[in-house]
Amino acid sequence: MDLGGRRVVVGVAGGIAAYKAAELVRALVKAGAEVRVVMTEAAQKFVTPLTMQALSQHPVATDTFDLTQEATIGHIQLADRAELLVIAPATADVIARLAHGLANDLLTTVALACRAPLLLAPAMNVNMWRHPATRANLKTLVERGVHTVGPDAGELACGWIGEGRLIEAAQIAEACGALLGPRDWAGRRVVVTAGPTFEPIDPVRFIGNRSTGKMGFAIAARAARRGAEVTLVAGPTSLPTPPGVRRVDVETARQMREATLAAVEGAAMVVMTAAVADYRPSVEAPEKLKKADLGDTPAVALMKNPDILAELKGRAPVVIGFAAETEDVERHAAEKLRQKGCDLIVANDVSEAGSGFGTDTNRVMLLGRDGSVERLPLLNKDEVAERILDRARALLGPAEAVA
Ligand code: CTP
């Protein structure tokens, strides 16, 4: 397993299995990961921070309110830099606190502030494991997207036999590797556009559309996680910038064109996810328009915006467009692919429930320049992003092709 340079935070809670966390840290460091350890107060009764410090080769974080620790490893920075947070052992108490969103020690504070995937390796007495409270708490966390590995069944440290034993460190490390995923976009630059554009009528009014930017932000986030250097050109949206992504905020189609053309130089791929307004008011009134001057049936004259996607043709090895359709999706999308000269079109039927603007899921088809049509099932937008990146990565060819 190669985790070269991957940033993993290992959280250790207080249970007899805490000593196995030392093995986990060692396995992750051996695989090349940059490991930071956070210990609860109870965990320090079972293993010393010194042990963890020696194994991780970094100071161990134990206290939110310690000024020296905050100066060297601020807890928000710790959370923000992490690509994965793994808690092993995750005790019944920590699971309960996470389920309720508590932040009453450093570990739960880091967990709450962390946007990276969270992996729990539970360990506790079998009756605690089976208790309805623990079951309900875990269910809540899993529904929230938290991952779990283990526990094992067997002889427990407390003398009981049953489920609740911390799974072997090697298996936890493997689960970490699977969650971190490949770094197959390392060394490549990627440009993603997302969100709507707003086309001003006057200083307070504009023409816009219902795009929220979720799909484009998911692609940017996943590409960054897979190692790409990502520039996200974002229209007006309230979404937070994904970790490790350079964001350029724009409002209008013309600003988006400028920012995208500037960023695409030297990029391996550009993905036009943005719902660019096709038209803009031909005149932007310098002052707010007044009803008294407009009458009962005012008209807004429109003019065509530049087609950014068409202009990107040939400017990057892989150019991807999106097609939001409401009928005859495949035919319209194939036409768009040909007209705009892109390498891949991601098409969806925005009239279908669960697809399109504002949803967390999407059912898309991928149309290739070679005439191929790949229909994906209804997936969440993160998974759609991964599938698009897989397809695009294959179009780029082997890693040796990196300039
Ligand atoms: N696009 C663009 N610049 C525009 C308009 C669209 O780059 N001025 C890009 C979008 O980001 C998307 C694709 O082109 O990747 C969508 O094509 P588009 O022609 O906008 O689709 P529709 O507006 O749906 O076209 P039509 O109204 O003809 O169906």
Give the CATH H-level superfamily of the largest domain: CoaB-like
Pairing-aware structural class of the strands and helices?
A: alpha/beta
Task: Estimate the helix proportion, in percent.
Answer: 25-40%
Low-confidence parts, pLDDT < 50 over ≥5 residues?
A: none
Given the C-alpha coordinates, what overall shape results? Answer: elongated
CATH fold topology of the largest domain:
Rossmann fold
Give the ligands present.
cytidine-5'-triphosphate
Number of helices: 15
Give the biggest sheet: 8 strands, mixed
Taken together, the total number of domains comes to: 2
Proportion of β residues? 15-25%
Identify the strand order in the major beta sheet.
12-11-8-13-16-17-19-20
CA gyration radius, whole angstroms:
25 Å
So, CATH architecture of the largest domain? 3-Layer(aba) Sandwich
| CA-CA gap between termini | 26 Å
List keywords for this structure.
binds cytidine-5'-triphosphate, elongated, 21 strands, 403 residues, eight-stranded mixed sheet, five-stranded parallel sheet, 2 domains, Rossmann fold, alpha/beta
